[in-house]
Specification:
single chain, about 130 residues, alpha+beta, three-stranded antiparallel beta sheet, 6 helices, globular
């Protein structure tokens, strides 16, 4: 992975996320219906995708998210999801969870690491912490 020197939730961080697939958007790809759509689209371009491992995950929906919605949000065609009470609660608790981990494991971690894949530069990870 290639670490990026960018502050979490800064304008630069949001720009990089807008151009990348992240854990927040990747779940769209493992929904069975979406995987089948991607396979069909790829087949039309002469590419064969093995989606059996994706179908084995067994996810039937991801809050009505689709590959089109992910694309449209990234392209600015529709408003981006800005969170709700559940995502706000998760964000508020990130620091507490990391602190509890440090206490339980008796180790310090590096917080808020953002990295691009060394293999596929369109894959981005924003880690709450790296041990």
């Amino acid at each position: 992975m290639k670490r990026l020197e960018v502050a979490l939730r800064s304008p630069e961080w949001h720009e990089i996320r807008a151009e990348s697939w992240t854990a927040s958007t990747a779940a769209v790809l493992v929904v069975a219906e979406n995987a089948k759509l991607l396979k069909s689209c790829a087949a039309a371009k002469g590419v064969e995708l093995d989606i059996e491992p994706i179908l084995a995950v067994g996810i039937e929906s991801y809050f009505d998210n689709t590959p089109w919605r992910a694309w449209a949000e990234k392209m600015g065609r529709i408003p981006k999801f800005n969170g709700n009470e559940h995502t706000a609660r998760g964000t508020e608790n990130e620091g507490r969870v990391v602190q509890k981990f440090e206490e339980a494991q008796l180790m310090m971690v590096e917080r808020d690491v953002t990295a691009l894949s060394s293999v596929d530069s369109w894959l981005l990870a924003s880690f709450d912490a790296v041990a």
